[in-house]
Amino acid sequence: MKRAPRLVLGVVLARWLHAAAGNICSIMHWAIGFRELGWEVWIAEHLSSPELQPPERPGQASPQEEYWKTTVEEYGFRSCECLLIDGESPQLEAFREFAASADLFINYAGHFKRLDLLGSRTVKAYLDVDPAFTQLWVEVCKSDMNLEGHDVFLTVGTTLNLPGALLPTLGREWIPVFPPVVADYWRQKLGAVPNVAAAAPWTTIAHWYGYPELEWRGRRYAGKRESLVEMRSLPQHVLGPCAIATDLAPDWDDYAPFTEAGWRFIPASQVCGNVSSYLRFIAGSRGEIGVAKEGYIVSRGGWMSDRSVVYLALGRPVVLQETGWTRAIAPSEGMLVFHNIRDCAEAIRSIEADYETHSRAAQALADTIFSPRGVLKPLLGKIL
Fold it and tell me: What is the dihedral of CA 106, 112, 115, 116, to 10 degrees?
């Protein structure tokens, strides 16, 4: 009997302990997505001992190791995972045997560097989840993003490879891919997706200050804060409330102007501390205000968010800022585009005028176009 195809997914889970529910979901879209397609999947990460926090009590493992153990058990990867600490792991030999025969390796954001553990015939794919910034960190900052050693380069910059994208390609062919979502899995994990109240807020989730601003060929590539400032008066243009789950502190300069404009702030730790609270927050939203980092907008590389597809999976419509993504997929019921604050308000009003239709359409998008079958199967035809 022919064995199932094998995937090694290089991840970054244990390194990010706090308010990382979005990161877990993003990675599990891929791990569980391939598993649902019938693949054998191992996940792997490596850390060095100086990166480990001291255990809470003597005799315990480090918080990173405990977090890894809890996470892999929760998502059904306990017998197919390897956390390397200084190159060592109790699962190292089993992982080495599996990795040597793997058909495909996907390196999430390039964090996994032990490519020597993979087989010579394994197709090694780099997955770029920060299109524009990944390339500019290499081109402008001369950062080592661990691109070397990979055979193919994937990106959620859905139009990065098209004429008009304003970012360096680093001499590589970047294969666009939509962020996949395992919709049924998140619905089941939530339990029952509740009906959302008419007075529920439109929401967004953001790091207020993320990446330092970059400049390339006379253009500025900045972060989320710069884009959010352009949307500050949005609550005054829509009927319902608007809320941001973020790390913005009340004594920071932007806090008062945004609250005065009608925004409600929710501490990111309350939303992103675990996946259950993350899913409940999204399910309790009318929809997503998909504000993009300024660098994504300027680059026209077609960035799409793995967070938006979770909103869709839970039947919550999204209004997404234009980054070039409309060249890859047309806006439609359940997923509308905006260029500026006026467009955003109009899109929200349009959805609210026929909310149930847009809600059903959002869920249908998650079940078809953004499903593992809709995203990963076509991708495999391009890279294997």
Answer: -150
pLDDT of residue 19: 82
Backbone angles phi, psi at 378, to 5 degrees: -60, -35
235 close to 262: Cβ distance less than 8 angstroms: yes
d(CA 365, CA 354): 17
How far apart are alpha carbons 355 and 373 in whole angstroms? 27
- Taking all residues of the chain, what is their mean pLDDT, rounded to a whole number? 96
Annotated domain spans of the chain: 6-180+371-383, 183-367
Which of the four CATH numbers 3.40.50.2000, 2.30.30.240, 3.40.50.300, 3.40.50.620 does domain 183-367 have? Answer: 3.40.50.2000
The sign of the CA dihedral 32, 35, 39, 42 is: positive
Tokens at 17, concatenated = 């302990």
Alpha-carbon span 307 to 122, nearest angstrom: 30
181/193 Cα distance (integer angstroms): 16
Architecture label for domain 6-180+371-383: 3-Layer(aba) Sandwich (3.40)
> CB-based burial of residue 249 (10 Å sphere; 0-12 exposed, 13-18 middle, 19+ buried)?
exposed
Q: Which residue has the tokens 């059903």?
A: 360
**pLDDT recorded at residue 110:** 97
